[in-house]
Specification:
The chain is α/β, with parallel strands linked by helices. It is 40% helix and 17% strand. The strands form three sheets. The chain has an eight-stranded parallel β-sheet. The protein has a two-stranded antiparallel ribbon with strand order 1-2. Helix 1 (42-54) crosses helix 2 and helix 8 packs parallel to helix 9 (264-277).
Length: 278
């Protein structure tokens, strides 16, 4: 399986590592890491992008809106100012696929023009105009399942069968994407671990991961440093590397094609050993 991302092609016959780069002041793990003197520092952004590439990441995922529970609302202009200059700077300097984590149509369009290769939307292209904007870019899109909205999604998540309901939602979004003119092979499924799910929901999704996407559909998993690791293992955010690596390995073994992580080098090592031993 291959994924065409603008000028790049990803070989999904082996798991690819997506490194996280949040240009936000308030994301749960790396928020504010790339700010200096009250504003976004592109030198710090480029340093992180270079680190991701050096450590084995093949995708840099740039986000300009925090989606953690209780995160501050971001205006369209704020998101544009955080994301587009970062995309442009990284595209000019590094030979890497750039993914843009956004639900905002204008950010999709301007990021694609600046060199982005994937649109990654936690709201699965449901905002007004998002589906049309994403289709117009011609880029692959990642559609994620989320029950509710970021501010309230963890209040009381409830499912009869979390796997069947998540899969049904993603299948529906695939149909919407295809109807809008996005090629089926360019739609990536993301079950949305931690987005409107409790720990038992997350574990059930992980156990039944192969059921969450058709065999020929790319599948992305993001479990890195998630709060479920903290609760299950009683670990703070900066103590969740072992848990993150275990979940990355399990995800890859169960069919994930893209693993979205903070700790790129360690994850790349784990996945390389998995490939060598398979």
């Amino acid at each position: 399986m291959k994924l065409n991302c603008g000028k790049h092609t990803l070989d999904l016959s082996r798991p690819q590592v997506m490194g996280i780069l949040n240009t936000t002041p308030d994301s749960f793990s790396d928020g504010g890491s790339y700010y200096a003197d009250g504003g976004l520092d592109l030198d710090l952004v480029l340093h992180r992008a270079e680190q991701i590439c050096r450590e084995g990441g093949t995708i840099v995922d740039i986000g300009g809106e925090s989606t953690r529970p209780g995160a501050a609302v971001v205006t369209e202009q704020q998101e544009l100012d955080r994301v587009v200059p970062a995309v442009e700077a990284i595209h000019q300097r590094f030979d890497v696929v750039i993914s843009v984590d956004t639900s905002t149509p204008s950010v999709m369009r301007e990021s694609a023009a600046a060199g982005a290769g994937i649109i990654n939307d936690v709201r699965a292209l449901t905002r007004d105009g998002a589906l049309e904007a994403a289709a117009a870019t011609g880029l692959p899109v990642c559609v994620m399942h989320m029950q509710g909205e970021p501010g309230s999604m963890q209040a009381n998540p409830d499912y009869r069968d979390v796997v069947r309901e998540v899969r049904a939602y993603l299948d529906e979004r695939l149909a919407a994407c295809v109807a809008a003119g996005i090629a089926r092979e360019k739609v990536i499924y993301d079950p949305g671990f931690g987005f409107g799910k409790n720990d038992q929901h997350n574990l059930e999704l992980l156990r039944r991961l192969p059921e969450l996407a058709p065999p020929d559909q790319p599948l992305l998993v993001g479990l890195s440093r998630k709060s479920m690791i903290g609760r299950l293992l009683d670990r703070a955010v900066d103590e969740r590397l072992a848990g993150s690596l275990a979940l990355a390995m399990l995800s890859a073994q169960r069919g994930a094609h893209i693993i979205r992580v903070h700790d790129v080098a360690a994850t790349a090592d784990v996945l390389k050993l998995l490939q060598l031993a398979s």
